[in-house]
Amino acid sequence: MDLIIFTLAVLDGLAYASQVFMVAVGMTLIFGVMRILNIAHGGFYAIGAYLSAGIGLAIASAGLSPWLHLPALVIGAAMAGGVLGLVIERFVLRYIYVKEEVLQLLVTFAIFMILEDVQRLVFGVQPYAASSLVDAMGTINVLGIPYNAYQVLLLPGVAVLTLVGLRWFLHHTLLGHLITATAEDREAATAMGVNANRVFLLTFTIGTVLAALGGAFAAPTTAVQLGMGADMIVLSFAVVVTAGLGQVEGAAVTAVLIGLGRSFAIYLMPELDVLMPYFIMMLVLLVRPNGLFGTVQTRKI
Amino acid sequence: MMGTSNPLRPLGRAFLAGVCALGIGTAGAADKPEQIDIGISAFLSGPASVFGEPARAAAEIMAERINANGGIHGVPVNLSFIDEGAGSAHLLSEYRRLVQSEDYDVMFASISSGNCLKVAPLAEDLEVINLMWDCGTQRVFEEGDYNYVFRTQANATPEMLASVLYLLKTHPDFETIAVVNQDYAWGRDSWNIFRTALQTLKPDVEVVAEFFPKFGTPDFSTEITRLLAMRPDVVLSTSWGGDLDNFVRQAKQRGLDERSTLVLPLAESSLERLGEDMPTGAIVGARGDHYYAHPGYADDEKFNEFVSSFREKTGNVPIYSAFHMVQAFDALQAAYDRAIEANGGEWPDTEALADAFEGLSFRGATSEITIRPADHQGLEDQMLGTAKQVEGKDIAELCDITVFPAEAITTPAGEDSTEWLKGLSADLLDTDVTTYPGCH
Amino acid sequence: MRGGRFLLLGVVALIALMPLFAPWSKTFLVLAIAKGLAVLGIVVLLRAGQVSFGHALFFAASAYVAAFAARLLGGGELLTLLVIGALGSGVLGLLVGLFVVRYRYIFFGMLNLAFSMVFYAVLEKFYHYTGGSDGLILSRPSVLGIGLERLPFEYTLFYVALATAAVLGWLVHRYLNSAPGRALAAIKTNETRLEYLGISARGTLLVAYVISAMLAGVGGTLAAVMQGLVTPEYAYWVRSGEFVFIAILGGAGHVLGAFAGALVYEGVRMYLAVLAADMWQLLLGVVLLVIVLFASEGLVGLWHRISGRFAPAGREAS
């Protein structure tokens, strides 16, 4: 494999990794703090994508500049994710924290199924496409190959921004400290006066917004169609588990590993590309049984 | 009503025989039912609903029209839909329930090739007439003999062969080809057929890459990067729905359509959605001669009436799954006509109706289709064209539209497709075809 | 609980006789029983506090093994196929289990998921061997050497399934109440203490894992024979999720719960799909939500609650 092909593979891998990270980081956060594996995450991703596509189409038919789509989709996703997250946490999830983990998971599974049909009832069965933003940003030439600027510049940029932003939030703000503390030890934090319910509400909402953002940013590059949520979920599971519980940095590293793994697989052994996330997960867990950056969870006896 | 697994059936037959002996009834006759119950399976959920929903709309249009004209020989039709998106287990149990408990008369199944393979033996077991109205697999009739199963459209072999022939006609000198197909049975099967036909008719072609990305993949960037680097003359994709939309858009954004010719045998169903994103020069197929702007039927009343009712009902142009549904209904009507005539005016029972389907000729919205008596396979002409963007139009037009006659490109009854394709001769390129000059 | 036992027998008798009134229900019932067996496997693991999100792996593996075996044997024999399928998934369970029992909780669950999705991808990719997403056709096997027509075969299959479920259910019940079964429960409550007693937690869990894999295997083969076709769908993660769901629906710790849950789930799913072809997923999700929120002990828990009102004081705990 010569240097050119290698560079192209790395570039493709990083572009894909950005998308994976955007999708999975929300789920990682929710899992770290609330210990709930949010299956409905895929539904929020899809809704974010549909909304973004709708906004993009509206902007196009109103004749406005496609660049408007960028801030519009961020705002749209934030609002949609925020509202959905708040409502679901407050009216459904709150009642199941006391129950066993399996039950909590199944509630998110039920929400996922409901959201799948809601998508169809609200948006219909036809795929939506709103790619004017990508067209507007044009292509850049790397080693003679045209790449979409959106995919190799914007998306990785947004992913890095999200990572840095989350890190800053979690480590350098009061709210972030409250979330981290609750993630480490819910009981101790509550004993210190932290309102665990509010922390959960906040975390879940942030997670949902991140999922919707992931979908919203993905929408200009791909046709938004029924079933896209379901595929994303399994991939996100792999990232969450490989990263180590609640480790945002771990999610970033895992996303890069998966992105590069997939892209090199397509170049060298195309048939194995779908298996890469699972291979990576198994390999990492063999060497580090608690995930890349995970710590051993002590059990209370 | 029609055939059920009723243990009293032999008694019924004996009675009927006795009645016949008295010269009151006729063999092969049944009581005229109050309504004809038709069970239709289609994808009403999930990504393949891009085919199922238009088909359902078409079915409702056809049923309304039939009932408005008094029904089939005075008997109205009643439709029931089974969602293939709920899984094959659901399809099979619902299919059984409709036939065994509710005495449904005729079943149309299905869109998914996998489901057709499962339903055909079941229909045969239940002794109910089943029309394969949309699925593409050629395996059903090549691997088994059926009495009650018929196909009112072509199958993957003529569809892919026509694509090969069109490609060879329009680009006789290309040297390299790559494929990007969905990773499931259709993607694999259709490539097999295409490749076998191509390598028989033009052995010096080189296949430079074969990609089978996961079904529903939103992102083909890596595959497109590779194709841009490899520069094959032709890139084939038999994908459909959102996957095809994605691939074509992403390919166009990065200029793949300028380096390679795209061959897209199922793209007729994406023309409206892709709009300006369909690249000029791409070869577009339609699984039959289905095209809402078909030049050969511009003045045809039946065609125009269907297209306009469909547009009125759904706001979209009809795609091939809708046309296939029309064919199934027209076949049913024609079969009843033929059976009743053969019966001297008496209402036919299942066996008599099945007899009527063999060798039946009927017209859907476009050309005439014949159901081969030997294996019940439908003979449907295949149409391809080259896309062209036109100033001021929302949908690309098709130029150099060519229609290939069914007889020449369908595997003969009793033969295996792959074997037959290997034995093709280059004379096939000289078969008489119908061409429509200009762009429509 | 005398009254309860008779009622239970009554329900079983009703199920056993249902196909005589409603011939189409055979398919539905056999599939419910097949799923119930897989769910039984989940229940076994739940005893140790571990949830497997990839049990569809064994459901599918045995189905494919049975399909290949049927091909090699030129049709095969029903009981032979069931045994071969169970053995196939048992061996696979051993291999996967050796790796997986080292992990607990979410890692255990997710690793199982990973294995099942890898298998799913392999089934789809290796198209020439496995038939890809079209799957493999499984023609009707003979029963005790006799080739049967469709109708008598379906009746036979139904009663075989019912009998198998009864026998396996009883065996699992005995297992869970035996010493190894109680050791299994100790993994959930206090694994360290178990190790102190000199019993290997991993070993116990491995045994349970293989048993659960074989249970899912028998279920998979039954489903495959009933449908006459095996497809990669059998291994998809949503199916694994369904098994877990049904386990909870039925009542997380109970053998009977597995089958009760499967029957109710399949029934609800079927009727919803018929009544509201457009919205069945939504309605099913709502139903599931309601159950988890208001009846999380599952059907068996509900049953105890209701029959507890009618029983005299001093009931035996089950």
Quick rundown:
With 440 residues, chain B is of the alpha/beta class. Chain B has helices at residues 9-21, 49-68, 88-101, 113-126, 139-143, 156-170, 185-201, 221-230, 241-253, 256-259, 271-274, 301-314, 320-342, 350-357, 406-409, 417-422, and strands at residues 36-42, 77-83, 106-108, 129-132, 149-151, 176-180, 206-211, 234-236, 261-264, 283-285, 361-363, 368-371, 378-379, 382-388, 397-404, 434-439.
Total number of beta strands of chain A? 2
What are the segments of chain A in which pLDDT stays under 50 over at least 5 consecutive residues?
Answer: none
| Class based on secondary structure composition and strand pairing of chain A | mainly alpha
Radius of gyration of chain B: 22 Å
**Average pLDDT metric of chain B:** 89
Radius of gyration of chain A: 19 Å
The separation of the N and C termini of chain B measures: 47 Å
Largest sheet entry of chain B: 8 strands, mixed
Number of domains of chain B: 2
Q: How large a portion of the residues of chain A is in β-strands, by DSSP E?
A: under 5%
What's the SSE pattern of chain A?
HHHHHEEHHHHHHH
Distance between the termini of chain A: 54 Å
Subcellular location (chain A): Cell membrane
Main location (chain A): membrane
Protein name (chain A): High-affinity branched-chain amino acid transport system permease protein LivH
GO molecular function (chain A): transmembrane transporter activity
Overview of this protein structure:
The complex is a heterotrimer of chains A (301), B (440) and C (318). Chain A is mostly helical and 301 residues long. Helix content of chain A is 72%, strand content 3%. Chain A has 12 helices and 2 strands; from the N terminus they run H-H-H-H-H-E-E-H-H-H-H-H-H-H. Chain A has helices at 3-34, 41-61, 69-91, 101-123, 132-137, 149-172, 174-184, 186-191, 196-218, 228-243, 248-268, 276-287; strands spanning 139-142, 145-148. In chain A, strands 1-2 form a two-stranded antiparallel sheet. Chain B has 440 residues and is α/β, with parallel strands linked by helices. Helix content of chain B is 42%, strand content 17%. Chain B has an 8-stranded mixed beta sheet with strand order 7-6-8-9-10-14-15-16. A 5-stranded parallel beta sheet of chain B has the order 2-1-3-4-5, with helices on both faces. Chain C has 318 residues and is mostly helical. Chain C has a domain at 24-236. Helix content of chain C is 76%, strand content 1%. Chain C is globular, with a radius of gyration of 19 Å. The chains are: A mainly alpha (301), B alpha/beta (440), C mainly alpha (318). Chain A: InterPro entries: ABC_transp_permease (IPR001851), BCAA_transport_permease (IPR052157). Chain A: Its main location: membrane.
